[in-house]
Amino acid sequence: MKLRVSGLDEAIAIANAHPGLEYGLVIEVRSMVPDCHLGVTTTSEKS
Question: What SS3 string covers 6-44?
């Protein structure tokens, strides 16, 4: 799952609230590069 968040702290807070953690679920939180070779972007397009 990919989420657009304001920063690492927000991403960690969302991950820590997941109910699956009680059952051994592992969540990896990491940042994405601004652009990738597939045309995916993590930056907002502004006009």
Answer: CCHHHHHHHHHCCHHHHHCCCCCCCCCCCECCCCCECCC
